[in-house]
Amino acid sequence: MINYIEEVNKNVNIEEGKKTLENILITIYLKGGISTKELARNSLLPIPVVAAIKKEFIKKGLVIQDRGTRLTLKGRYFIEEGLGFKKINSDLYMRLLMEPWKEHREIIEIKEELQEVFDNRPKVDVTIDQSKSSIDTSLKRAILSLKNHDLVGKRILCLGDDDLVSIALGFLLKKLFNNTIQHTTKITVMDIDKRIIDYISNIAIKESLPIKCEYVDLRTPLTDNFKNQFDCFFTDPPYTFEGLNLFLSRGIEALRRCSGLTIYFSYAHKFPDFQLTMQRYFLSMGLIVSEIIARFNTYEGASIIGNTGQMIVLKTTNLTKALIKAPYKGVLYTGELKETVRSYRCKQCGEIIKVGRSEKIDNIEMLKSKGCYKCNSRVFELIQRENRN
After folding, report:
1. What is the pTM of this model?
2. Which 3-state string (H, E, C) describes 29-96?
3. What confidence tens digit (pLDDT) does each residue in 209-227 have?
4. Hey, is 154 helix, strand or coil?
């Protein structure tokens, strides 16, 4: 099938990137009869630029001017077969676009379906900075991708996925396509935790979700078959500058070489000087900050960051580049930079046990799994934190 987006881009070559052209065509598909003025407002482009784009679509036989701008049969075929919208529930898609954070009946149903999946996910491994996001958070991330037209027909990467965003994306797709798999979206999960990979893979098979999991240690460069492949990616990296740089660099290499692609970057709320340095890193990578949504993410048991985090929506440009391309051998996780040793008291016998990277037991999850070495109880209370390094 001819890629009409590429064809039109050759003639108009807008600085906003080819994805903007695609989004305009999708908007016409969803809102038949839309005016040029409204198209301009939706795409944040000047009216003359949108008029020129529309003229090129008309030349290609994709749209016509008939009581507003409408798709031709050829244009509808391209959207449905070429961009993956065939048999989509357009009503639900439009309602989620217009009111993305409303508790629509279908969203409530998805949350109910996800409850058991999220309840049974593997315990967090704090040594690699894992923390469980809520169902609401993972589903909101999926809806945010729909809002930005980054869901249907796309190749999506989840760079680390203890939050099960891939599962939320899959369930949202099933709802949009009336519980069928009549769509072309492909989701890839890269994670160093084999428990997460196995868990997501099993759910994907059981629920017929378009998810493929790969064991990947991001300290090692991506292989060529993963580079220049994806339309967007999600990541919730370690809350260190080293983790930020490495995860973003590997993700950038995985993205297609195209301006205007989206990176969904979840991170803790930090003090101003930290965020200034963080944004300098974004600029050095040729990324722009498109949107910052405070308190977007909520986490279970992540009291050290106040159980909340921000969503930073980044966009690629023609200058986007990875800062780290070689193998990475430095520190990465929070505990590697500054170790915290926690002292827990067994609630049954009173024995005090230290937990930390330099101790015999790495984390509280391991302690609960092994139990108190004196009485085998698995109930403990935190009594002291000691920072080392």
Report:
1. 0.86
2. HHCCCECHHHHHHHHCCCHHHHHHHHHHHHHCCCEEECCCEEECHHHHHHHHHHCCCCCCCHHHHHHH
3. 999 999 999 999 999 999 9
4. coil
